[in-house]
Amino acid sequence: MGESIRNLSSVTQVGLDLAKNVFQVHAIDAQGAVIVAKSVRRGQLPAFFSSLRQCLIGMEACSSAHHWARSAMRK
Prior knowledge:
- By secondary structure, the protein is α+β, with helices and mostly antiparallel strands.
- It has helices at about 45-50, 65-75, and strands at about 5, 15, 20-30, 35-40, 55-60.
- A five-stranded mixed beta sheet has the order 1-4-3-2-5, with no helix packed on it.
């Protein structure tokens, strides 16, 4: 997946594919245009979420999903 980042303030929805070390992030705006499509390392994920305004986050249901959901809600 190529790296793509545009204006983070327009993000309305984020899709997050959880993994052990490298997560895939896909974010769109209200019109469905791709704003972010990139890989994010585990240590960078909290900083990435803190740079976003409040939005809907979808992620797979797995044993670490609750941990990452709590991490994404902290600001």
